[in-house]
Design brief:
Blueprint lengths: L1 H12 L6 H18 L10 H13 L8 E5 L7 H7 L4 E6 L2 H13 L5 E5 L11 E7 L4 H8 L3 E12 L3 H6 L1 H6 L2 E11 L2 E10 L13 H4 L3
Parallel strand pairs: 1-2, 1-4, 2-3, 4-5
Antiparallel strand pairs: 5-7, 6-7
Helix pairs in contact: 1-2
């Protein structure tokens, strides 16, 4: 498995050590992703080196910040949720996506990789009922910070975290989201900036310090159309 060894070395280059078994799971993940991507659009990134860096490594950067029950909102092709499941078998991960084709892909992938700590659920976030049930709620490449605050914070336990993956241009988004974060019981805890081969990225961590009002998240696409 030459690709598995390359994956292992790439993780090591970015100061993350993975086992041979994990590297082989990532190789299977890549092959399955590329095959299924021919049938319907899962990712615009398809070159092996790019998928490893921009999807696998990028999703893995925050792996140490997670604990307990995790919800990945808008999981899509499984980033970061499947990556977290491969790296941390102590986590219990729920992948949430509104498109049934993507959920079917995720279920097939979970079976292929023999992952026991993750499940995929087909639902829109405003219809998902498990409020304040998760230690960590995350999203990557889903929406801006105002909208994401409404999508994520209602599902975080008091004392838990919303862990958000962002590009370099996050500062204005974060400023604009201050009212939403406060309204939904959140508080900025940490910003971790990092560099992936000259691609600047950031992890934004919001701590849940109070309950979100029960009407959130709103339906009718209002978190996007009319953010807090």
């Amino acid at each position: 498995m030459q690709n598995a060894e390359t994956i292992k070395q790439t993780f090591l280059k970015h100061r993350m050590k993975i086992s041979q078994k994990q590297a082989e799971k990532f190789e299977k993940y890549y092959q399955f992703l590329i095959e299924e991507n021919k049938k319907f659009n899962l990712t615009a990134i398809t070159e092996f080196e790019d998928v490893v860096l921009k999807h696998f490594i990028d999703s893995a950067v925050a792996v140490g910040k997670f604990k307990g029950k995790v919800l990945d909102v808008g999981s899509g092709a499984g980033f970061p949720g499947i990556v977290l499941a491969i790296l941390r078998d102590d986590l219990q991960i729920t992948l949430l996506d509104s498109l049934n084709k993507r959920v079917n892909f995720l279920n097939s992938l979970i079976k292929l990789l023999e992952l026991k700590n993750v499940k995929a659920v087909h639902a829109r976030i405003e219809d998902f009922e498990e409020k304040q049930a998760f230690d960590c709620v995350t999203a990557r490449a889903v929406a801006n910070m105002q909208t994401l605050s409404e999508y994520l914070l209602p599902f975080v336990k008091i004392g838990g975290k919303a862990i958000i993956y962002k590009g370099a241009e996050f500062f204005e988004e974060l400023e604009n989201a201050q009212n939403a974060i406060k309204t939904l019981g959140g508080q900025l805890e940490e910003i971790e900036r990092y560099n992936l081969n000259d691609m600047m990225r950031a992890i934004i961590v919001l701590r849940k310090v109070g309950s979100a009002p029960s009407k959130f998240p709103r339906g009718g696409n209002l978190p996007r159309k009319n953010p807090l």
